[in-house]
Please model this.
Amino acid sequence: MKFLNFKNNRQKGISSIVGGIFFLVLMTSGFTVYYVALDTQSQMIDTQQIIADTGVAKIKEKFVVAASSDSGDSNRLSLQVVNIGNNAVEIADVWIINKTGIENATRYDLDYRDVSIPVGYSGNILENRAPLYLISDIYDIKIISSLGTIKSVEYDVAGGSNILNAQMVAIPQDVRFGENVTVILMVTNTGEFDVKEVRANTNFDVSPDQCRDPPNLIFGGPSNLAPSQSTMFFWDCILDPPLLNTITFTGNATGLLSGVSVDSNDASDSVVVRDFTSAGGTLILEQELLNRPEIFMVIPSPFGDDPNNLGLWGVNVVNPTPFPMEVSKVTITAITARPQLQDK
Model:
């Protein structure tokens, strides 16, 4: 007779169920871990994509900044921003540090109407906020965009804007009284913006004032200057005694940057007044000298070696600019008359 072992069969059935449940748990856990890993990886990819997009946008974000102040309005600060990149620029805030004072760096919020600068446009980002007035110090100004791009500019209130640079030359340096002295003011646009209607200011100063008549502006009108372009202004006056006085001329220029007035630095130069027995300078001033060097040839007297007829032999090159000029080559062409029969 055969007896069936129901107990063993029941244990095998329970083991199969437990094994199946355990397998399902493992499989579910595995799928869960897999999906969590996929989601984490997807988030990492999205984060990396956002970082990459932000980096690309930051690289494409290009803007330049210029600071100026209106001396006629208690040195009210103006910050011109020009968008020269491929994406719109959004300015987040402005930090101003007084480099000559003891105040801490100060952050200034902007008006929402001024913060966005479209491609190819410019604007004063302080136009609609409460005015910022500066004292005569040197400031370090930082402009920060919403993407984190930082542009810094140093601004000297007393020295004028960082856009127009002025230099002055007075010639001759030792002038005899009763003769003319010419003062030249050269103004250069050293910024990255066009400056309109650049003109010499009327507060041209002569100290001590020994001009027979008020200095007369003989050349130079309003000019529009692109970046790196220059213009020149000329004054002349006749100096009177006392002698041996050092006369200092001082002047500057002004222009319009996006409708806002900007001043150059004050430029100056000096001359000494002498009498007729002292050596004086000789001024050669022609229109052609304003844009290129000029050569003057001087040869000895053709009438022999008498001391009264001796001359200076050589080549004189006149530099019409206030900057050093290096002469690299001088070409001289001699044209002689044909020999005559009596010439042996």
